[in-house]
Amino acid sequence: MSLYYQIKELYPDIKDDEFMLQDDSNGKGAYIREWKTAYPKPTQVELDSVKSIAIKKEKLIEIREKRNKLLVKSDVYCFVDSYNKLTATQKTEIETYRQALRDLPTTIDVNLPVYPVKPTWAD
Q1: Residue 9 contacts by C-beta under 8 Å, 6 or more apart in sequence?
Q2: pLDDT at position 74, please?
């Protein structure tokens, strides 16, 4: 999938319907199958020049998706009825956990993601 992000890195305004990628099972990986845009088709050198940036962006997207799922799972503790039943310590713990999740994209090592640990009392 990083070829997609490499193209998007080189041409941020390119539309998804202006190019088509294909990933063959022959071991060579993804390649540009169709190029239907006025942008010049990128060379392998150009693609390689943005590969590490594209991989990082792709990993950050995956991290955000997981983070968002974890936030949704902990939303129940923020509803007034549930929140009011928590002890002061539990409120602090869940607030700290959720803030750490929100801060995650700016604090995480994308190559070795470590997610905050939710409070043990929270299912």
Answers
A1: 50, 53, 54, 57
A2: 94
